[in-house]
Known about the structure:
Number of helices: 26
Shape: globular
Number of strands: 15
Helix content: 40-55%
Strand content: 15-25%
Amino acid sequence: MLRGIRKASSNWLGKVVMSVVMGVLILSFAVWGIADIFKGFGQSTLAKIGKTEISTEQFRQLYTERLQQLGRQFGRPLTMDQARAFGLDRQVLQQTIAEAALDEEARRMGLGQSDAEIMRMIYSDPNFKGVSGNFDPARFQATIRQFGFTEQKYIAEQRRVSLRRQIAGTVSAGLEPPKVLIEALSRFQNEQRTIEYVKLDAAQAGTIDPPAPEALAAYFDDRKTQFRAPEYRKISFVAVTPEEIGKWSDVSDEDAKKIFEQRRGKLGMPEQRQVSQIVFPNAEEAAAARGRIASGMSFEDLAKERGLNSTDVDLGMIAKSGIIDAAIAEAAFSLPSGEVSQPVPGRFGVALIKIGKIEPGAEPVYDSVAATLKKEIATERARAKVSDLHNKMEDERGGGAGVIEAAQKLGLSAVTIDAVDHSGRLPNGQLVANIPRGLDVVSQAFNSAVGVDNEPIQFDGGYVWYDVLDVIPSRERNLDEVRDQVEAKWRDDQITSRLRTKATEMVQKLENGGKLADEAAAAGSKVETASGVRRDASLPVLPTSAITAAFRTPKDAVGQTAGAGGNEWIVFRVTDISVPPVDLASDDIKKLKETLQRGLTDEQVAQYVTKIEKTIGTTINQAAFAQITGANN
């Protein structure tokens, strides 16, 4: 915005216009006053939770970042309309308010987090580690700056996150899903059905004669909106990211070998051992147990005697670095296979250790990792260049240069797309190929206009600048432009209608005592069988719609449903239903229990947060929320 004001006032006409605009603003303050800033809802406030205010700009940034994240996951931009359809706008708002409520509660309870613990969390974050594998202060600064944080603000945010986790952990402590619920869900998920079915396709629909000209014209007139040309935009953009800039950098073998030597121990495959341990409260009990093992008692029998199961004892196949206790790790990796250690004083007690299988480590070879190391080094070096190019690009844009002109001056490659629709497709229906995966520049361009000086998009550790060069409005196409598409759609509708009618007739005959094999033969098809089908099954031969319909159908009953495409219909009979017994000790039940526990935890914390919000008071500026999320466009 400031850049636009500076550009607008760079000539005599712009100065006159800006003088008038500023005069109107000053007059507005004189007439209406500025009290709205200090009480009630100002234009800059989106919500207020207790004493905490969430600014519109803060929420706008959070919402935009969430859209970009989802766009990268989907591999295509997510529009404002799609986001609202998914309910993403309300989800982000609820999450933001919930976080603010927990912050208020932490202050009320007087909770705190030490600086040492916060620094430990930051130092161990893999996002801040350089090519050497250690914490890199420069990378830390560059990363947090990319997301709009100063060091002080980032540390403060991490402290808030840690306190929220403390509250959530306390609220949900001790939650356990009921056994009845676990068994009921297990039966629901593991129920299996056997289905006999017949597929009807275009072959069973018979010959479809071409439509008469007047019939096709009438069909098109009734569905003109389906064949309407969408709005297209001509856009240009330039991406400045560490990965892109890193491609230009040549890294020597000498530099790569230095990093290789520093990280040699982490690049290879470390030795792994199957480690089991039994922990005793003191050295006397451990020594007595070791004596019993020396007299012939097995390690496993000793564990059972102490009421321990395999998960309590077995650490699995593990590298030395994976064992938290240094004394235990040292002892475990000094024993031969099959041996039981003498008592080892550890951090959590005195332990006996047994070693099972041993898998030797593998030394790294430079040639096998050279390309990866060079790419990492080039990307790391490029991070500093990104910041420099960002400043230069902003200077060029501030001076009035468009994206293409600014890119040319800085030796960057700009991409121009002559026409792209809201979904990222070209006029021929193909997806645009030269937009980096996850970059939502198209949706951003459709929220802008020609001549607007847009803020850069943060993307992939760097920035993307874009301009809207032209807008081609949506329009109605005439029949001659889309005749082939209309004929294809008309034919598909005819096939679907005939197959639905035929399927309905088959179901009626089967309900009156007919046999599926006879009906299939009469239709020129065959009966197929799918056995042991679960609700969540994904079968190449049977679409999800048919599985869903079969689980709504009683045993020995028949049904019908659309197939995988518009030119397929399925008639089926459920021939068997079985529910396997529930094994509460199985891995599947353990996973189900963990899932239920997470759900109960989320629900408990959500109820707690709702109570906080009601207690301290929560108000939302719905007009500002609608403006940010595009609901009032």
